[in-house]
Amino acid sequence: MTAYLDNSATTKPCKGAKENMLKAIDECWGNPSSLHSAGIDADMLLIESRRVIAKTLACDEKEIIFTSGGTESNNIAVFGSAYGQRRKGNKIITSAIEHPSVHKCFDKLADEGFEVVKIPVDSKGLIDLGILEKEVDEKTVLVSIMAVNNEVGTIEPVNEIRNIVKRKNSPAIIHIDAVQAFGKIQINTKKLGADLVSISSHKVHGPKGVGALYIRNGTRLSPRVFGGGQERDIRPGTEPMPAIAGFAGAVSELKIKDSLEKITALRDEFVSELRSIDGVIINSPDDALPYIVNVSLMGLRSETVLNLLSGMGIYVSSGSACAKGHKSHVLTAMGLDDSIIDSSLRVSLSRFTTKEELRYFIEGVNRALKTIMKR
Q: Has 322 been annotated as catalytic?
């Protein structure tokens, strides 16, 4: 038996994604910018794919640009906002637990002279809204906060950011990294009040190499790549239609409410069983996104446990797949002891996860605690 429980790193492409990709390869393989019939066919597929993504985010189709994934979406959002708004100020705000594709951008901007503020979090990974409101001012040009943390699943109060920016009369652009949230909880860009929202295909059973960035009408971004004018001149280059079509195919299959109910029930039973095992600590808060469970096996280094589990055909991670081999800055910011951090594992579910897979993981945990402890 195998148990793939690393869905926050990537997901298995679904049927709709694969079917759409084949259509793009076999039938609509032209360049969407070409004016002949092959190009027009590809362009129609591009238009339809954009419509599908826009509908899920409750926004206008013209507000969606396609990118190579969540990392590029975040880079475009952060650098584009900071450079585009620099005449208004040089203060930019994020949290202490952002994904590397955001916090490394902020580190780079700090090197360039921007004033960077990283809002601390509590033991559950929640940002301090009081400190955020105190820091936002008339010189703040960007606030970038993730919707769901990728390591522990904490759901951040991002709906409050727009109100804070308004109260402080700040010109700040609001960017939300929704890569781990999209497809799992409802993201309504209008209700969210964000100017920019990043999403990714391979987190929702689509292909790798494609993502999207919602850009609210009227939001000014400074482009970092120049070319033929595709994607509103923000991300020029011939669109990778098989990947984009696959992304749309995956999104078309989403049933967010039903899947959330199923995964919540699975997670609750799973966590209850884990808590009954001596030496196991749950690091994710009780109200975290149920798709992510961060757990520590006390006294065992995560790398050692990962190897044992992998040998059993159980696939999890020790944190963000984009921070391989590094100590978790998320768990550190939450104030957890090094012994907990060094033994942490991230178990991440998808709508296809089964109860049998989770039970097999628990079997692996018990084996690790019995065998490794004896060495």
A: yes
Task: Pinpoint the alpha helices (H) of the chain.
Answer: 15-26, 37-57, 70-84, 100-111, 129-135, 161-167, 189-192, 241-252, 256-275, 302-312, 329-333, 338-341, 355-371
**Helix axes of 100-111 and 70-84: crossing angle, nearest 10 degrees:** 30
Strand order in the sheet with 211-215: 64-67, 211-215, 196-200, 173-177, 140-146, 91-95, 115-119
Residues in Cβ contact with 184 at an 8 Å cutoff, skipping those fewer than 6 apart:
148, 256, 259, 260, 263, 289, 291
- Whether the pTM exceeds 0.90: the reply is yes
Q: Is the dihedral of CA 188, 229, 205, 80 positive or negative?
A: negative
What does the pLDDT profile of the chain (375 residues) look like in tens digits? 999 999 999 999 999 999 999 999 999 999 898 999 989 999 999 999 999 999 999 999 999 999 999 999 999 999 999 999 999 999 999 999 999 999 999 999 999 999 999 999 999 999 999 999 999 999 999 999 999 999 999 999 999 999 999 999 999 999 999 999 999 999 999 999 999 999 999 999 999 999 999 999 999 999 988 998 898 989 999 999 999 999 999 999 999 999 999 999 999 999 999 999 999 999 999 999 999 999 999 999 999 999 999 999 999 998 654 545 578 999 999 999 999 999 999 999 999 999 999 999 999 999 999 988 655
Options 14, 28, 59, 322, the catalytic residue: 322
| Residues with Cβ within 8 Å of residue 11, at least 6 apart in sequence | 202, 203, 204, 205, 206, 350
Nearest 5 degrees, angle CA 346-CA 348-CA 79?
Answer: 80
